[in-house]
Specification:
By secondary structure, the protein is α+β, with helices and mostly antiparallel strands. About 20% of the residues lie in helices and about 35% in strands.
């Protein structure tokens, strides 16, 4: 389970996106979660003085860290749940 602690806004193909990051573990510089379209965040406009392509701590933008999941985590959780349910049937 990942929580968004940092965010970076950027434009790709003429559309505004947000790159979401969690706090990195000790062995790397960053922990990218995923990119989402800006409108999917439920926000109408960028906060004042926010620059594109610059990473910000969400706390500095007045946002509390929020849950976001890497697609790989969703897949692993789904596989684990299926294996558990199948295992219970075999018992």
């Amino acid at each position: 389970m990942a929580y968004v602690h940092e965010i970076k806004f950027f434009i790709e193909d003429g559309e505004l996106y947000a790159a979401l990051f969690d706090n990195p573990p000790f062995f790397c510089n960053e922990f990218w979660i995923k990119n989402v379209k800006f409108k999917e965040l439920g926000v109408n406009r960028l906060p004042k003085n926010v620059q594109l392509d610059k990473k910000y701590k969400v706390d500095d933008l007045g946002i509390r860290p929020f849950h976001a999941t890497k697609p790989e985590f969703d897949f692993i959780d789904s596989v684990a749940e299926t294996a558990w349910k199948t295992g219970l049937k075999l018992i």
